[in-house]
Amino acid sequence: MQKNLSIRWHSRAGQGAITASNALAEILGNHGKFVQSFPDFGAEKRGAPVVVFNRIANQIIEDVSHPTKIDIAVLLDPSLVSSCEITTEKLLEGLENRGILLVNSGQKKLKMGVGAAKVFGIAASEIAVVEIGKDIPNVPILGALVRILELAKMESFATELKKYLSAHLPPEIVEGNLKAFKRGFEEIGEIEGSKNLPKKNYQNLPNWKEITKGGTIHKSGSSEKYKTGNWVRQTCEWQKKTCVNCNLCWPVCPHDAIQTDSKGNMIGVDSEKCTACGLCVVACPTKPKSLRIISKKSSEI
Fold this sequence. Notes:
By secondary structure, this protein is of the alpha/beta class. The longest helix has 17 residues, at about 170-185. It has helices at about 15-30, 80, 90, 125-130, 140-150, 155-165, 170-185, 250, 280-285; strands spanning about 5-10, 35-40, 50-55, 70-75, 95-105, 110-115, 120, 190, 190-195, 235-240, 260, 265-270, 290-295. Strand 2 (about 35-40) and strand 3 (about 50-55) form a beta hairpin. Helix 1 packs across helix 6 (about 155-165) and helix 6 packs antiparallel against helix 7. It starts with a strand and ends in a 6-residue tail after the last strand. The model has no long low-confidence stretch (mean pLDDT about 85). It folds into two domains: about 5-195, Pyruvate-ferredoxin oxidoreductase, PFOR, domain III (Pyruvate-ferredoxin Oxidoreductase, domain 3), CATH 3.40.920; about 230-295, Alpha-Beta Plaits (2-Layer Sandwich). It contains nine helices and 13 strands.
């Protein structure tokens, strides 16, 4: 690896970016590197955008501010870009000349412009679902990152990662994550991205005379319009044939994703609200279950 590295992770709360960043820092720190790992996020809500930073160096790091020059940007969730929650400009911001963009995607080619950045992709979500049963793509991405930056050999890093994860997770989950890490390390590949950089978008802000007076609320908020599950790569599928309309799933759903008709009979699950938390599956009394978690198609960027 080069002498000094700055890494910026773009993720959603619940996808494990902070855990991966901390694990990377602790493991490299235990082997003589000087490291930093710190997040930057607003509301603590699962699915909310999160940014995490790493610094890795061979000497003491005195700078504690956000890195402005980045060697590698990591995108754990492409839907952050496809849903316009972060712009392509923001994703590539500060990326050094011919820097690296690592994306959680199995795409062969990116539609968005990345300029001179070198792009690598890994189907981390798909790997995570297979190996640990959940769409938590942090560890496969970590494996890809270790290989791209040549931070360590796969087996030696995996040994240290096992020690780190064992302090937080049960043995079966640790083993699944180790398999996911090795797959991320082995299956990472370079993908093609357009060399055209995105055009800068400028927002026309109102002048002070046009701004609404402070404290004025024109309309109350409504959770019915908030698509809590449109970024999740899993959703819940309803089987009408086995459903007995007991409605036990409806009160346990935290996101109002269970759809019913005027008589209270279930008619489906709203995949744009469902976050695949599984509470309805647990509550369902039928055998076989009338509700099950399935995968959705990944977002493309």
